[in-house]
Amino acid sequence: MAKTIRSADFRLTARQILQSKKRPQTEPWEDKVTVLLSVATLFAVFWDGWLHNNSTTLDSFWSEAHIAMYAGLTALGAWIGVVFVKRQPRGLKKLNISMEAVPYGYGLALVALPLAALGGPGDFAWHAAYGFENQIDAPFSPTHQMLFLAGGLLGAIALASAWHRPGRVLGLKQLWPAILSATAVLAMVSFTFMNLLPWFWTMIPSDDFQQNLLTFKDAYAPGSGDEVKHVEGLYDAAINYSGDVFPYYLFSNMASIGGVLIWTAAFVATVLYVRRRWVLPFGSVTLMTTLLSVLFPFFTRFTNLEFIGALIVIGLLVDTLSHVMLQDDPVSRLRVRAFAAFVPLLVWGPWELAIALFGGGLGWHPTMWTGVLTTSMGVGYGISLIMFPPALPAVEESDAEVA
């Protein structure tokens, strides 16, 4: 008989879930509903990002985006409640719930839904106390962070559920809910550092932007040789700021490059995480980048449509590379390392090309644009060491006895 726990005492919830060996598995169609509700809510989140990044004033909690976001969370919570109730053993007394009947993957909701329930009213109170952020502080309020974490956990449910189903070589028709689920997590991670996101700040590497930087009185102007005379070192230029002298070139470009490296780590990690569990069918990464291609333009009011095409092309290129290099199962770590190193080249090459062709020309010096490519390749390689670590040495029998 399934163990039960009274609703007033949830301290054993995690232990019961982890120790249970016969937890139920959802039906595939239920995971599809879960991930579609998650993605619909995700669109509302990015709509709210549009408002925070493009409005001159934000003075109401009850914006259309907020209403859509909380309506999505409510609908998703109600659906997950249905999934839970369907699997509770018959005959339980009122206010009792069997935690061992929580389906695989859906235990994430036991953390996410309370976070969302606290984050919503908390966000209202926070805005009432401190106003509405429309600068870089917007993603960093504690209540927003609670909602981001809740959104990431809810988005991951379909992936966590599919993880427990048998099979490593599946078609995209079977695997797409897990792929969209992983993408939802990546999208939420990207949202948290929106102010560094390269798909948002596409103007920084452009020729117009770089030429405009040269018009400022820079404390440490770019250039080499006889082109520029520096009166102080880079560190001194940063600490000796004043009203009319500032290292503009350094901070603007490093914001872009930092975002490139962070997103490289997040994207490569997401792809390799899914590859650890399944052989990726062709179209998996394209599905990921297609969803991202219609989420990221919310930040720029859909004014840079060339990056929608660039992201789809990136997905096709990475899918092709995956089909060539990662179809063996098990796959060699050498192939994984090479794949992870080349993926950033396939991401930022088209990104730079889109800026060069449609963004007013690429204004970065060859040292910069080639260095961004090679450095991001190093980041990809480094992520592969984490996601597919070297094999452990064989354990000697004597060592095992000591342990």
Offer a quick outline of the entry.
By secondary structure, this protein is mainly α. Helices cover 62% and strands 1% of the residues.
Tell me the domain tally. Answer: 2
What is the 3D shape? globular
Strand content: under 5%
Question: How many DSSP E strands?
Answer: 2
Number of H- or I-type helical stretches: 15
Largest sheet: 2 strands, antiparallel
List low-pLDDT spans: 1-12
C-alpha Rg, in Å?
24 Å
Q: What order do the SSEs take from the amino end to the carboxyl end, as H and E? A: EHHHEHHHHHHHHHHHH
The average pLDDT score comes to 86
Question: Explain this structure to me?
Answer:
- The structure is a single chain.
- The chain has a two-stranded antiparallel ribbon with strand order 1-2.
- The protein is built from 15 helices and 2 strands.
- α7 (172-192) runs parallel beside α11 (284-295).
- The chain is globular.
- Residues 1-12 have low confidence and may be disordered.
- The longest helix has 30 residues, at 248-277.
- By secondary structure, the protein is mainly alpha-helical.
